[in-house]
TrEMBL record:
TPR repeats lie at residues 176-209. It comes from Celeribacter persicus. PROSITE patterns: PROKAR_LIPOPROTEIN, TPR. This is Flp pilus assembly protein TadD. Keywords: Signal, TPR repeat. Residues 1-23 form the signal peptide. It comes from the Bacteria.
């Protein structure tokens, strides 16, 4: 046992001496402290990926802004800044950032698609369409066709929109969001039955998608269907959906039914439902004045 301890002591001394010697020696080629703190060194820890996927969006913007300032030629950092700006909701700044990415010599077709996405977020539909037109037909991705469908919708090119939506659905294993978009397109065209079908499909793929649930209720209300469909929902969601259905009924002229649904929404909500209470008071005041 004493021999083992002695050997460990010798090894410890040897390691300590090695560290001390390394610390005393100057690295060949001069000072490398700058390299130790550079983005290249940080990238080895996957910090960029963490910033893109897990960090607070504002912190990510700050990180990539500093990194781009230090390394203006690196497209991966420019791309990270653009994506972070989108996450942070700074859409106009994101457009500028994506424009810089697309102008880079190493830009890809995916970058151009993301640029088009940023343009759509700021309502620049024509420029977004121009960017998508510059993407070759061989570049077949879910995001590309989802955006193509949205642009076609904005131009009221319904057949093209339906074709693009259908293609996008086939290119993803998680089509809930695009099915919801497609359903909303049908809703705006007045095709309520088809819209209802698409919203129901969206919820099947993603039961947590409240937007699709709300849109489904709107599509049903437009057809005079004033009952909630069977689907997964929390008590708060149920109250909000009853409220949406009540407003749809009032808009359709079925005021008595609408008032009843809004009362149900107030009773169902686990907390005080201020918006529904105000709407009910307004309806009762109108009836009294009428």
């Amino acid at each position: 046992m004493a021999g083992i301890m002695r050997n460990l002591y010798v090894i410890t001394l040897a390691l300590a001496g090695s560290v001390a010697l390394t610390a005393c020696q100057k690295p060949f080629g001069g000072d490398v402290r700058r390299a130790d703190t550079s983005v290249n060194a940080i990238d080895g820890t996957g910090l960029s990926d963490i910033m893109l996927n897990a960090a607070d969006p504002t912190e990510a913007v700050s990180y990539f802004s500093r990194s781009v300032a230090e390394n203006p030629d690196r497209i991966d950092l420019q791309r990270g800044l653009a994506k972070s700006l989108v996450r942070a909701g700074e859409n106009h700044a994101a457009v500028t950032a994506w424009k810089n990415v697309v102008a880079h010599k190493e830009a890809t077709m995916d970058d151009r698609v993301d640029y088009a996405d940023a343009l759509i977020r700021t309502g620049e539909w024509k420029e977004a369409e121009a960017q998508l037109d510059a993407v070759p037909p061989t570049h077949e991705t879910y995001k590309r066709y989802r955006l193509e469908a949205m642009v076609a919708d904005s131009n009221q090119e319904w057949k093209k929109a339906d074709s693009f939506y259908q293609t996008a659905v086939g290119l993803t294993t998680r089509p809930g969001g695009v099915l919801n978009n497609w359903g909303y397109s049908k809703l705006t065209r007045g095709d309520y039955k088809e819209a209802e079908k698409l919203f129901a499909q969206a919820i099947t793929y993603d039961p947590s998608l409240f937007t699709a649930k709300n849109n489904l209720v709107l599509a049903r209300g437009a057809q005079g269907k004033y009952d909630l469909p069977v689907m997964e929902m929390t008590q708060t969601e149920r109250a909000q959906l009853l409220y949406t259905l009540g407003l749809a009924a009032v808009k359709a002229g079925d005021v008595t039914i609408g008032k009843g649904l809004i009362k149900d929404a107030i009773d169902t909500h686990p907390q005080h439902f201020e918006a529904a209470v105000r709407s009910l008071r307004a309806l009762e005041a109108n009836v009294s004045n009428g």
